[in-house]
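seq as requested:
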Amino acid sequence: MAPFRDLIPLMRYEVLVGLRYTRSRKRAQGRNRFISFISLVSMIGTGLGVAALIVVLSVMNGFQEELRTRILGVASHIQVYGYDGELDAWQQVADEASRHASVVAAAPYVQEQAMLSFDQNVRGTLVRGVLPSEEDRVADFAQYMKVGSLDALEPGRFGIVLGRDLAFALRVQAGDRVTMIAPQGLVTPAAVLPRVRQFEVVGIFEAGMFEYDSGLALIHMRDAQVLYRMEDRVSGVRLKLDDLFAAPRVARELAGMIYVPALVTDWTRSHANFFRAVALEKTMMTIILFLIVAVAAFNIVSTLVMAVQEKYADIAILRTLGASPGSIMTIFVLQGAIIGVVGLALGVAGGLVLAHNLDVVIPWLEAVTGATLWNKEIYYISELPSRVLWSDVTTIVSLSFALTLVATLYPSWRASRVNPAEALRYE
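C-alpha cells:
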C-alpha cells in the first residue's frame, strides 16, 4: 500500500500544474496571453466541430427515418405484380402471400398514368386504383387525409382523392369535378380518341412527401379497371409486414411460395437510390466535418509546443526537484486533454440544443437571411427532421477525444526530453 500512497500526491500535483498551465492569468501579458488565446481558439474549434457533427448526423438520421416512414406510409413493404403490368387471380396471390408468418395484410391495386384537367389547369399524375377497406391495412392514408375520407371512394361513383399539392396546382377542392384523360385511346374509323372520364373530388390527403402529394391520385379499383379496360385484372398486390427491415428476406421466400407467374420486389429495391444517397451523404459529411476537429487538434499541438517553449525554466526546475520525464509528459498531456474536454463539453451541449430545436432555428434563419434553407421540392419532405442517436454522440465524443490525446503526445514528449542544465543555463 505504501507505493500507492506515494503516487497520490504526485498525481494531484500533476493535475494541479496542468490546470494551472491551462488557465489564463488575469495579468497575463505578451506570450502568455497569446498562448491563452490559442488555447481558447482550440476549445472553440473543437466545440464547433463536435456541434456540427452532432447536428448534421441528427439531421441525416431524422431525414432517413422520416423518408422511410413517409415512403412506406404511401407505398408498401413488398409488391407482387405481373410481368406485363397486369396480374390475374390476385385473390390467389394474396392468399398465398398471407400464409407467410411475416405478412400481416395484403391489398390489390391498379396503377396507371393519366392527365387531370380542371378549368385551364392540366397536370400529369399517377393514378392508383384501390379498395379502401383493404388499402387502410397496408398504407397510412387514413391519418394523412385532410379533407374527406378514403371510404368515400365507391365503385361506380367515380370519386377521386388527390394529394394536397396536386389539388393546389389544379386549384380544386372537395366537390369539384376534374377530367381524367387516360393515355390508352379508343380506336375509331376517324381517329384514335383518348378515353375521358369526369371524377368528383371526394378527398385530399397530405403525406408530407412532395413526390406523392404532387403526383398521386386515388380512385376506386373497380373504376380504374373500367377506365383502363382491365376487366377483373389488377396491376399487383401490396403487402405489409410485421417487420419492414425483413422485407428483402421475406420477398425471397415469397418468390418460392407464389405459384402465379409474378415478380416480387421490396421497398429496399424500389427506393434504393433514396436510402443509398442519404447513407453516402451521411458518411461523406461525417468525414468532412471530422476535419474540423482535426484542425482544432492541430491548434492544440501548436498551443502545447508554445507552452513547452514558454515553460522551459519551469520544466527544468521541476526536473531538478525530482519530477520524472513521465510526470512532465503527464502534465502537458493533461493540459491538452483539458482543452479538448472543455471543447467537447461545449460542442456536445451546443450540438444537442441545436439538434433538438431545428424546427425553431431554421425558420428564424430563413426569416433573417431571406433564403430558403429547406426546399420540400428538392428534399421530398416538408419539414427538416432531426433525430439524435446517443450511439452517434458517443462515437463523435470518443473519436474527438482520441484525436485530442494524439495531438498532445508529441509536444508532451518534447517537454519530457528537456535537459535541466541546458534550460537553466541562461536563466
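The radius of gyration is 33 Å.
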